[in-house]
Design a protein that fits this description.
There is one protein chain. Strands 3-4-2-5-1-6-7-8 form an eight-stranded mixed sheet, with helices on both faces. A hairpin with a 2-residue loop joins strand 3 and strand 4. It starts with a helix and ends with a helix. By secondary structure, it is an alpha/beta fold. It has a single domain, classed as P-loop containing nucleotide triphosphate hydrolases (Rossmann fold, 3-Layer(aba) Sandwich), CATH 3.40.50.300. The chain is elongated and about 75 Å long. The chain is built from twelve helices and eight strands.
Length: 302
């Protein structure tokens, strides 16, 4: 693995960052955004969590649903899927009066809230719109990085377009389902980044996700990020007298090493390991993890 990894990630159109809840997906999304954005490459990171966490990691105010600049070549947006679906109706129907009738109808409200896979398709459809520069001023984005829902929902996100196109054969949503199904099935355009912690349940979910991608799409995740690793415990004779904190450190590191060994035995693709750092969530943490990410790539190419 080398800096070629960053070039491969940058060559995609959409990166879907997924993993078990609590493993640091949002931090990794922000790190990838910082790594891949340049003066020549426009990268947008977006989330669908109404709590809006990404802006804290990047040190800017909440986006409020708008595309917000977050640094050189980097942009942020918090997405509400229902708003995306409404905008698609307006674009396809053209006439505002007709679009308003549809949007205000009880049938449409029930459909938009309950149709299987529709919200997921709205999320992916929005990413494609950003890449094409549709519905907003300015240039199209070169890369979109999605802080996706937790592991099981992440797989559902990718399979939703095909499901929708099978259920709805005609109309704007059927057309969108077919278009997005082709888009997400192309590994040259869409890549999956799996984030895990070196603990039993997150590792189990990461391995299950890889198996699901193999079975449903015949592909592998582009990258595995093992996040929040405890630093190596001092060798015998080097450590001070143990207190409760030192004993906890030793136990957690042993657990990390056990689960890392399981991952190494099962996962032969690109892998990056990021440490647990004594920092609050925010841009300082993101910048430190960017440095760790780069250093690891350099070490593995030396």
């Amino acid at each position: 693995m080398s800096t070629d990894l960053l070039e491969r990630l940058a060559s995609r159109k959409l990166l879907v960052v997924t993993g078990k809840g609590g493993v640091g997906k949002t931090s990794v999304t922000a790190v990838l955004g910082r790594l891949l954005a340049t003066s020549r490459r426009r990268v947008l990171v977006f989330e669908v969590d109404p709590r809006e966490n990404l802006h804290q990691m990047l040190g800017i105010p909440p986006s409020g649903g708008e595309v917000t600049e977050a640094g050189r070549g980097l942009f942020l947006q918090n997405l509400k899927p229902r708003q995306v679906l409404d905008s698609i109706v307006r674009e396809r129907l053209k006439l505002e009066a007709l679009a308003r009738r549809v949007l205000e109808s009880p049938v449409y409200r029930h459909f938009s809230e309950g149709a299987p896979g529709l919200k997921e398709v709205g999320i992916l459809g929005h990413a494609l719109r950003l890449l094409r520069g549709i519905g907003r001023r300015g240039k199209p984005m070169d890369l979109v990085i999605l802080d996706a829902p937790a592991t099981g929902h992440g797989v559902s996100l990718l399979t939703a377009p095909r499901l929708l196109s099978e259920v709805i054969e005609k109309g704007p949503f059927g057309d969108m389902g077919r278009e997005l199904s082709e888009f997400v099935s192309d590994p040259g355009q869409v890549a999956v980044v799996v984030v895990t912690g070196a603990e039993e349940m997150p590792v189990d979910e990461a391995l299950e996700l890889r198996q699901s991608l193999r079975e449903r799409f015949g592909r592998e995740p582009e990258l595995l990020v093992v996040n929040g690793l405890y630093p190596p415990y001092p060798a015998e004779g080097e450590s001070p007298q143990e207190d409760e904190g030192m004993r906890l450190w030793r136990r957690r590191r042993r657990l990390n090493e056990k689960e890392l060994a399981r991952l190494v035995a099962s996962w032969d693709g690109p892998r990056v390991e990021l440490p647990k750092l004594p920092m609050d969530r925010g841009p300082e943490l993101v910048n430190a993890l960017v440095t760790c990410f780069r250093a690891q790539l350099q070490e593995r190419t030396a």
